[in-house]
């Protein structure tokens, strides 16, 4: 059950079964299923079957599985499922700068995670803290894998303020197909590490800005899991290498 303690000494109970579906997607699946039923009653099979298949695809897209979040005050977990496509040093976006509840203006390490339409699109908090700044910016819908998507696409910036005063920045970016970013939180909300923060519909990207003195604990091309994969350890600066096989 959610909230159960899991550890490496055998505590906790592994559970299987199908993941739940987020309410945001149920209405779309019901609409498609209803249209499919109407088409079937009218003997329009060429329409009924594709609509039935589409309703199943929608349920799969909006799936919302439980995650086992590692516990540790120095851990920053992945905010999204997907593939690490960029690790680079950049200045934080203007909306996230400032020394008062912001990331400052000095270059920080940005980890970009690309989500395909087959990935879970529920985004999660990288750490425990309080939601500070949130800025929604309308924009274009270019390929989310491109670097310019961070500056041109529809996006939402948010900052999580840890209890020790360290600010962690995160940006949800819409992609070619995505057309809406849905937040689950607002400024002032207290969140736990791995807590659901929002979702992006139909393909997208999420950027995480690591604080100064923290190096990525993942590599380019690595698949990560929201709420479970550790992207960084605060204050730990270590160079990692991997071998693609």
UniProtKB/TrEMBL annotation:
The keyword Transmembrane helix applies. It is an enzyme of class 4 (lyase). Is synthesized initially as an inactive proenzyme. Formation of the active enzyme involves a self-maturation process in which the active site pyruvoyl group is generated from an internal serine residue via an autocatalytic post-translational modification. Two non-identical subunits are generated from the proenzyme in this reaction, and the pyruvate is formed at the N-terminus of the alpha chain, which is derived from the carboxyl end of the proenzyme. Its cofactor is pyruvate. It is found in: Cell membrane. It is a peripheral membrane protein. GO terms for molecular function: phosphatidylserine decarboxylase activity. The record marks 203-204 as: Cleavage (non-hydrolytic). InterPro entries: PS_Dcarbxylase, PSD-A. Its main location: membrane. Belongs to the phosphatidylserine decarboxylase family. PSD-A subfamily. Catalyzes the formation of phosphatidylethanolamine (PtdEtn) from phosphatidylserine (PtdSer). This is Phosphatidylserine decarboxylase proenzyme. It comes from Alteriqipengyuania abyssalis.
